[in-house]
Design goal:
A: 275 residues; 12 helices; B: 439 residues; Rossmann fold; five-stranded mixed β-sheet; 10 helices; 30% strand; globular
Chain lengths: 275, 439
């Protein structure tokens, strides 16, 4: 029995608490295990398993190409429409799935929250990781597509890790607020799918950002996903990266991330009492 | 090992009841409220817990002004009625919920066992669940890997460790879940009534492990309703009543205090309806050693059943009998005054018969009493049947052997070991040496 002098104090927390990074590091194993559990269960239960990760963007791409690309004649910045929409769908579906999953994550873990202690932020955060795996699988399909259309990514590809970090931060920010609100107000669950659907239409996934008049461009970039997805598409498909859009969206992402964490930490204390 | 490991100072926990409890507020309501009084209601979401924002929301103090110290290596039982605050105390100590007032100072790693099978997922295999559950309870990955074989052996599920847990029997599930928790090795262990689930053998395993943990010198806090277990395992105990500390001291003393207040149904019957005949029972109750009516019965009590009856006319051959019944009404045994060479009275008057049951015969079950006044050939003059009472388990004959006694009552029998006596065998008197008669 090791006798680490491990003194801890439990008392009512001050209203203003910062994220305890040291504690999070201590619980990093749990973070990994919860994500691993989600992946294992997901891939074990469905008949399609990992195939769904690819089918979802592929099928959506097909439908959008037919109805928006061909029939409605939506422009696509000079790119072949299927490729245009697929590259946007990848990060979009990561984000929308992550938001839905993390929004419900706390409610789904009622037993854990009321019986064990660990920093609760781990629950919505780890539920996002499963989406990353799906994203990676679907991303692989992009390669043959790009070969088929003869497009080679330019130097913009270096931006990808930064953009991925942005997507993750946005997902964590939004997911945290939603999951916390869901615990206290159970009907919030019904808002999420509707919200996500509307969000899709205000993001330049189906249509290019260039379709929005220059004057109003800044408004659409208040949507954090807008600038990120435009930049993602541009950097992969060798187009000019829209820096202005990216900066505006990037700032919004940072803001949402900070607010999300703050709200979550504030409401965290009452979870076990209310859930 | 003698210094203070857990220091609790003026701990309090307030819950909001009324509107906030039972029914979760919907967001729609919040929006409507917000429209009526813009900032107040929305801000209520973010306010620190415990402050009542609304006059129609009552608050209750689940814990109030709780202070006591626990020394390292002590095993402390936490007892009290339902709603006394025992589970709330554990929840605060394991950081699941925050205190409203006061503070706690803990020295050492804390492991909490508030439920069996926390984090288990039915689709995963036993092995995967061990790792998952271990991580949830706070163990590191390599720690789990090191102890994995031990855990599986303790749970006795080696053959099935690769099958998904949804195929396990409930017994296997419990054993595996407990095995993971049992290998936590924290300096401070908090246990909340986990013994309430599972069968007898599982409960014995739980108790055994907790006993072992206590002997290793760790500090254990144990919430339970099973006073027998508390007295066996714990050196000290704290009694909570309505959120406050009523007593803290040696386990036996505190348990006795708890019992004296009386929380179980004890036998106490008094005639309310008019009798059918002029020979009838007036009251039946139980009395303890001190001559006072027992408000609750424990397994270690020497119980006397007091029968007060009225004989309204001269009656020859009056019989009185008392039967002990099991929970379903089956008679376990019967007794009558003839056991002591007495006969029931013949002359009219009021009588009080005191029947002393053999010591420590009762187990921790629900029993019934049947008493009858009758005359052979004539019939039953008065009968009171199915008067139930529950018996609280304390350290006594019924739990004096490891696996516990089975059966309806506990009877002490005389045992002795016999050895072949040299003298007897030489003389051929030993039974084993008896020659079968020939011819």
């Amino acid at each position: 029995m090791n006798s680490r002098e491990n003194v801890s104090i439990i008392e009512p927390r001050a209203s203003w608490t910062l994220l305890d990074l040291q504690e999070l590091w201590h619980y990093r194993d749990l973070f990994y295990f919860l994500a691993w559990r989600d992946v294992k269960v997901r891939y074990r239960q469905t008949v399609l398993g990992g195939l769904w990760a690819v089918l979802q963007p592929l099928m959506t791409m097909g439908i959008f190409t037919i109805f928006f690309g061909q029939l409605a004649g939506v422009p696509s910045d000079g790119l072949p429409y299927p490729l245009f929409v697929y590259t946007a769908l990848l990060p979009w579906q990561f984000f929308s799935n992550a938001v839905s999953n993390s929004g419900n994550s706390l409610i789904a873990s009622t037993q854990l929250i009321s019986k064990v202690y660990f920093p609760r932020i781990i629950i919505p955060s780890s539920s996002i990781l499963c989406g990353l795996l799906d994203f990676a699988v679907a991303f692989i399909l992009l390669v043959p597509m790009m070969v088929y259309y003869g497009i080679v990514p330019g130097s913009g590809i270096l931006l990808l890790p930064v953009l991925m970090a942005g997507f993750i931060m946005a997902a964590i920010g939004v997911g945290s607020i939603l999951s916390a609100l869901n615990v206290h107000y159970r009907d919030f669950r019904y808002v999420v799918p509707f919200m996500v659907q509307i969000w899709l239409f205000v993001t330049p996934v189906i249509y290019p950002a260039s379709m929005v008049p220059e004057r109003w461009r800044w408004m659409i970039n208040l949507n954090p996903m807008a600038g990120l997805i435009s930049a993602f598409r541009a950097s992969l498909l060798d187009q000019a990266v829209p820096w202005a859009d990216l900066v505006v969206s990037g700032l919004v992402v940072l803001l949402i991330f900070a607010i999300g964490l703050f709200v979550f930490l504030r409401m965290e204390r009452r979870f076990a009492d209310v859930i | 090992m003698g210094d203070t490991t857990i220091q609790i100072e003026k701990l309090g926990k307030r819950y909001r009841i009324g509107r906030a409890l039972g029914r979760n507020q919907t967001f729609r309501e919040v929006l409507v409220d917000a429209a009526c009084s813009p900032f107040r209601r929305m801000a209520g979401m973010f306010r620190s817990p415990g402050i009542a924002t609304n006059s129609d929301q009552e608050t209750i103090w689940a814990l109030r002004n709780v202070s006591f110290d626990i020394r390292g290596g002590d095993t402390v039982g936490v007892i009290g009625r339902n709603g006394a605050g025992k589970s709330t105390l554990l929840k605060i100590l394991s950081r699941i919920t925050e205190p409203t007032t006061g503070r706690v100072r803990l020295r050492g790693r804390v492991g909490a066992l508030l439920e069996i099978g926390t984090g288990f997922h039915s689709e995963l295999t036993g092995e995967e669940n061990v790792y998952l559950s271990g991580a949830i309870l706070g163990m590191k990955h390599d720690e789990i890997r090191r102890k994995f074989d031990e855990i599986v052996a303790f749970a006795e599920v080696e053959k099935f460790i690769r099958t998904p847990v949804k195929h396990y029997s409930s017994g296997m599930y419990l054993r595996l879940a407990f095995a993971v928790a049992a290998h936590l090795d924290p300096e401070i262990l908090l246990v909340d009534e986990v013994l309430a689930v599972g069968d007898v053998s599982f409960q014995k395993k739980c108790l055994g492990k907790m006993d072992a943990v206590a002997h290793e010198g760790r500090t254990v806090l144990f919430v339970s309703h099973n006073l027998g277990a508390v007295q066996r395992l714990c050196r000290s105990a704290v009694l909570l009543e309505r959120g406050e500390v009523k007593a803290y001291g040696p386990a036996a003393e505190v348990s006795a205090l708890y019992l004296k207040d009386g929380m179980t149904d004890a036998l106490s019957w008094r005639r309310s309806a008019p009798a059918q005949s002029d020979i009838y029972f007036r009251s039946i109750y139980m009395r303890g050693d001190d001559g006072e009516p027992l408000s609750c019965v424990t397994t270690s009590d020497s119980v006397r059943v007091v029968l007060q009856f009225v004989v309204g006319r001269r009656c020859r051959d009056l019989q009185v009998s008392l039967g002990l019944l099991d929970r379903s009404g089956e008679q376990i045994f019967g007794t009558a005054p003839q056991d002591t060479g007495l006969t029931p009275p013949e002359e009219p008057g009021e009588y009080t018969a005191v029947v002393t049951l053999p010591a420590e015969i009762l187990m921790a079950k629900t029993y019934g009493i049947r008493a009858a006044l009758w005359v052979p050939g004539l019939g039953i003059l008065d009968r009171q049947d199915g008067l139930q009472f529950s018996v609280q388990e304390t350290a006594s004959l019924c739990n004096s052997i490891p696996e516990g006694r089975h059966g309806q009552i506990a009877i002490r029998c005389e045992w002795k070991y016999e050895r072949p006596d040299d003298e007897e065998t030489r003389n051929g008197k030993h039974p084993a040496m008896a020659q079968p008669s020939m011819g």
